[in-house]
Amino acid sequence: MIVTALTEMFRLRHPIILGPMGAVSGGRLAAAVSNAGGLGLVGGGYGDPDWLRRELSLASEQARGAWGVGLITWSIDRRVLDLALGYRPGAFMLSFGDPRPHAPAIKAAGCKLICQVQDLEQARVACAAGADLIVAEGTEAGGHGGSRATLPLVPAVVDAVAPTPVVAAGGIADGRGLAAALMLGAHGALIGTRFYASAEALGHDEAKRRIAAAHGEETARTRVFDIVRGYDWPPAFPGRALRNRFLEKWDGRESDLASALQTEREAYQAAARAGDHDTAVVWAGEAVDLIGSVESAGTLVARIGAQAEARLRAGAGACRA
Q1: Class of residue 193 by CB neighbours under 10 A (exposed 0-12, middle 13-18, buried 19+)
Q2: Contact 227, 238 (CB under 8 A)
Q3: Are 171 and 140 in contact (CB under 8 A)?
Q4: 305 vs 298: CA distance, rounded Å
């Protein structure tokens, strides 16, 4: 069994956190990860109240271990924050924005504050906000992120915020990645794309199939899906997604897309409803090479944890005096 500050903080069997992927990490998936010994986080995204009520209810009813919720910092207000806290999550993750306005309410509720960061300055701000845990997210991650790679970013954040514990994210989909994160000084790994391709994840089966069939070079960082969906993301955080016909048509032509929104948005929304992922986005990270099938979340947690333990033992055995 791997014991770290993360596992001790939440009494986990494995130092694994479910990435709170918006509209993907629902209550059922979060509960499944928690029940398998990891920390399941509901992906609250932009803070839709009806969605949050439904999925947080599921998590609170089904999870037997610690669970939590994640929200996009720049898009939420106090009402959404209070709604989520009302379900008494054990952890609350804020990503993409200044956590300081929301940190006091989270801490006052007795909730552990997790802040995801993409560079050292954000890490220092999170530390000043009182974060109990900091997630250092590399650019290899699926969905929105910064420009720093995981391998050099994680130890730099570890050094910058010590003794606050750090978790690694970005490009991690198996036990080898988890073991590597621990060797970088992290106390665990936050994993998203691997859990997107799980039975309990929300989302269309075709999206999961595409993730399981994809290769890392078939992902790209782009703004076109945010433009067509009408989300005003800060320019520093484009999203990594699987390449499809829509991306190939509009990437590099963002101004033209913005001018054509009246027709393109309607067509995009229809495609999303129909599960047409030649048009609709599938957020996915570079670690898709390591994903070959759709499996249950519990199976994934157990296997990733066991693989990491085996790798760490093998690494220790390779050392000679």
Answers
A1: buried
A2: no
A3: yes
A4: 11
DSSP state at residue 202: -
Q: What is the pLDDT of residue 321?
A: 62
- pLDDT tens, position by position, 169-196: 999 999 999 999 999 999 999 999 999 9
pLDDT in tens, 129-168: 999 999 999 999 999 999 999 999 999 999 999 999 999 9
Alpha helices in 109-253 (DSSP H): 120-128, 150-161, 175-183, 193-196, 205-213, 224-229, 245-250
Nearest in space to 303 (alpha carbons), one of 198, 207, 228? 198
CA neighbours within 13 Å on the CB side: how many for 221?
14
> What would the two tokens of residue 47 be?
């803070």
155 in Cβ contact with 185 (< 8 Å)? yes
pTM over 0.85: yes
Tell me the helix, strand and coil percentages in the chain, rounded to 5: 45, 15, 40
The DSSP element (H or E) to which 57 belongs, if any, is: helix 49-62
The whole-angstrom separation of Cα 292 and Cα 228 is 30
- Closest by CA to 194, choosing from 100, 310, 115, 292, is 292
Which stretches of 33-159 are assigned E, i.e. beta strand? 40-43, 67-72, 91-95, 112-117, 133-137, 143-144
Which tens digits make up the pLDDT trace of 191-236? 999 999 999 999 899 999 999 999 999 999 999 999 999 999 998 9
Taken in order of first residue, the domains within the chain and their CATH numbers are: 5-202+291-317 (3.20.20.70), 213-274 (no CATH)
Percent residues over pLDDT 70 in the chain: 99
The closest alpha carbon to 229, from 274, 267, 191, belongs to: 267
**Residue-level pLDDT at 111:** 97
Q: Which two three-digit tokens encode residue 173?
A: 């989909």
Q: Which amino acid is at 320?
A: R
